[in-house]
Amino acid sequence: MCGIAGSINGQKLPNERIYPLMRHRGPDSKGAFYDSTKWGLLQFFHARLSIQDLSPLAHQPMQYGNLCLVFNGEIYNHLDFRKTLDFPFKTHSDTETILALFAKYGEAFLQDLNAFDGMFAFALYDKTAQKVYFARDRMGKKPLFFYQDSKQFAFVSELNTLQALVESPLEINFESLNFYLKSGFFYHDGTPYKNTFSLPNANYGILDLNTHSLEIKPYFDLEACYKAPKITDELEALQTCEALLKQSIKNRIESSDLEVGAFLSGGIDSSLIVALSSQITPKLRTFTVSFENSSFDESNLAEATAKRYNTAHTTLKISTNLKDDAPKILQNYGRPFFDSSAIPSYYVAKAAKEHLSVILNGDGADELFGGYRRYVGHLLVNKILPFGALANLLPNPNNKQSLYNYFYRLLQMANAYKRDLTEYYLRATTDIFVGFYNFATLSSFKENVESIFKSNLSPLSKMLLLDAKHLLLCDLLPKMDIATMAHSLEGRSPFLSKALVEFAPRLDDRLKVQGKTTKYLLRKLAEKHLNKAVCNAPKRGFEVPLAMWIDGELQALIFDTLAHTKIAQEFLEKNIIDSLCFKPHLYPKEKRAKMLWSLFALEVWYEKYKKGL
Known about the structure:
One of its GO terms (molecular function) is asparagine synthase (glutamine-hydrolyzing) activity. It is an enzyme of class 6 (ligase). Pathway: Amino-acid biosynthesis; L-asparagine biosynthesis; L-asparagine from L-aspartate (L-Gln route): step 1/1. Belongs to the asparagine synthetase family. By secondary structure, this protein is an alpha+beta fold. The protein folds into 3 domains: 3-220, Glutamine Phosphoribosylpyrophosphate, subunit 1, domain 1 (4-Layer Sandwich), CATH 3.60.20; 229-369 and 471-536, HUPs (Rossmann fold); 545-612, no CATH class. It has 24 helices and 17 strands. Strand 13 (260-263), helix 8 (268-277) and strand 14 form a beta-alpha-beta unit. It is globular and about 75 Å long.
């Protein structure tokens, strides 16, 4: 994996100015390319993390004839395409395979990007055609951001690099920030800056240097996979799932010229990856985090799996100086970042990097196979929709742990479903300010959510598709990319292989959620390979004791930051911010923690923005 950047019609920049901003993404080599175009000077920059073909011949930018490519990612099946090519290969790198494919097929190659099994973002310059081509992988694992105004075009892997390439000062997009506070993420192509956007996943772009126009086209549609004929036979599904996951892990291990390890939590996703990886590579290195709060700590389950498969295991206890580290970690994202699990992700990636440069993770399993507890609630809500209005007539529950409270909340959710589908979805997922403060909803987000909810898909498929398009794409994948690449560590996600992404949506709903059992098929697979305690453990996710941190070690930092707010007051009255800080009894404990954290992340980003990124 690497860092890429470039600009068109900007002043010439030495590589020494750009490379330090993305060296963490690729410390092994640096490169730059310059050329005059119809629009002005074109410049490409690259920072390489050498993993596949470690030789200097595989350095970038890579050129062939009138083509020049900067590439970030890994294509695990790229050697399969070489069999059809008559090309003078000098390396066994996937970068050169992409060059060869474009040299043979031209623009038509972009329409078939779904044939790749991998993660990627790239920019390819064709001097003859006077065009630059961009692309991003189907699920959006690798980031790619653009800036475009009437004078200049620029692209980057990380937003923190952008201002160095753009001659005009970046301006704040308050509409995007408003939606960040509502949802906890930047939707689709949104960023905190005007004229700046993310290339959507599963899309490619064509920038015409003659007309300065950018055309963006999709090459893959996840929703179509959910509309394919369903797999209903449990044994067939189980055998296929195991075979596909094994092959995916094998591809991700064998396509690296360096040692590959794995993150290991107490959950079944990462534990399955470790179990199957141990059949492929001896003495796998595994890493987990431990919290002082036992309700969030899964390290004992992780250690049990590590012991069973004889891995070289490291448990990292989160007991560092959070008040110093939290702002630094958040600033790495180049935008307000709400997900507090970015903190343990950063620490465990740092620990892993001391031993290796490639790590496997369990990202994508929950969104594809139905792993979240709220899916059970969502299915119940769909059964009681006609009774949602009863929530307005019933008394508030006194005991939050009671059965009455559970059904009361289900009725509230059913009421929200009938009233506002976007509110329902956000309440069911990130649930930050929903119900306490009504931030405006982006019309594009509202249209997308309503379109999926009103489709002919099953209730479960609707929620899974929404989570893949929003939670996974806009939160979980960016979190892991930045957390790992901050330490020059490449994260690979076996559950997001081409085969599994196309297989999981075809599973019948009962193979995902049965009664109160989530991720049914993966749990059945886990029974073959994991201890019973791991198989039966309730899902925690990569959760952190955020409320405990905010009422403890981080309280002074967050309260002081918000007392001297520089940006949050643009969206919330000061008395509401003060109330969140000093009147905790007015809010549910965990919800208050999320509201305060989202505002703190906003302030941390703004402070870096004001310093010129």
